[in-house]
Design goal:
mainly alpha, Arc Repressor Mutant, subunit A, Tetracycline Repressor, domain 2, about 75% helix, elongated
Length: about 200
């Protein structure tokens, strides 16, 4: 068998395993959102079109699956920051990512009961997310400072702290709209010129 064919055959199972993992995480996120921590793992496996053994091979415990769902959302946020920075003007990239961060907070509120069920509490999960979030916001803010849109003395994480604080305010019907307005207020207060909306 040609060497390239052997290499392709060796890669295929790993690709399939990665696709299985992604499907499981997507289905699990929806299940934990709708049903909380007690969502059936067998149902998650069935909806993801994998066997129960495949699910448990990737995620040996319910806690491991809940933690992986949260970490996967954080990884998506970090990847979005890189994508926006590469394809948009700096201030627009920053604004769009901050709006995405609001959606992340909203999702975190919804699955909080599942996260709170993790043995030892969710604090370690939240702490593990701090590094990727700081890296994302720092890179975006540096780009906007370099472009002349933001003041040079801005501390990047100061833009996220108020949004994180919103998560502890009792939710109203217009919670997300208020948080989106807060993004524009924060950027306007930090800008050398008013940010252009996309």
């Amino acid at each position: 068998m040609p060497r390239k064919a052997v290499q392709s055959a060796a890669r295929k199972p790993r690709r399939d395993a990665q696709l299985n993992r992604e499907r499981i995480l997507d289905v699990a996120k929806n299940a934990f959102t709708r049903q909380g921590a007690d969502a059936s793992l067998d149902d998650i496996a069935r909806q993801a079109e994998v066997g129960a053994g495949t699910l448990y091979r990737h995620f040996p415990t319910r806690d491991a699956l809940i933690a992986a769902v949260y970490r996967n959302e954080v990884e998506k946020l970090a990847a979005a920051a890189r994508e926006y920075a590469a394809t948009m003007p700096p201030i627009q990239a920053l604004r769009k990512w901050m709006l995405l961060f609001v959606d992340h907070i909203a999702q975190k509120r919804i699955i909080a009961p599942a996260l709170n069920s993790v043995v030892g509490g969710p604090e370690k999960l939240y702490e593990s997310a701090r590094g990727p979030m700081e890296g994302a916001i720092t890179a975006l803010v540096k780009g906007a400072i370099k472009s002349g849109d933001l003041r040079r003395d801005l501390e990047p994480f100061d833009l996220l702290r108020p949004l994180i604080g919103v998560a502890y305010v009792p939710a109203g019907g217009d919670w997300r709209q208020s948080a989106h307005r807060l993004v524009d207020i924060l950027l306007a207060g930090s800008s050398l010129k008013h940010p252009a909306k996309n």
